[in-house]
Amino acid sequence: MWTADFWKDLIERLVWTFVEAFLGGLTVSAFTDVDALSAALIAGLGAVLSALKSIVAAKLKERRGEATNQQTAQLGAKTYSYTG
Asked: Would you state the torsion angle of the CA atoms of residues 57, 63, 67, 69, taken in this order, to the nearest 10 degrees?
């Protein structure tokens, strides 16, 4: 679970969640009193929650003994599967 690929994917999700939420916040700021700093704080909170969700989901899969997509792919071409 705590592989370099896991952390790379988690950071990618964190960054994209921040970017999407920040752009959404800036879009809304044109119609409300939300400033750029508030939009960044809200986006940061969303990104942190996304990262926490990824960690909890990976830990639950590990506890249940489910293989991650990466672990399944490492078993060989004949055993590719998607676990959600």
From this structure: 10
User: Do the Cβ atoms of 69 and 83 come closer than 8 Å?
Assistant: yes
> Which residues neighbour 1 within 8 Å (Cβ) at sequence distance 6 or greater?
58, 59, 61, 62, 68
Helix 36-64 crosses helix 4-29 at what angle (to 10 degrees)? 150
pLDDT tens for 3-18 read 899 999 999 999 999 9
Domain map (residue ranges) of the chain: 4-75
By CB neighbour count within 10 A (0-12 exposed, 13-18 middle, 19+ buried), where does 47 fall?
buried
- 7 residue type, one letter: W
Residue 25, phi then psi, degrees to nearest 5: -65, -40
pTM for this one? 0.70
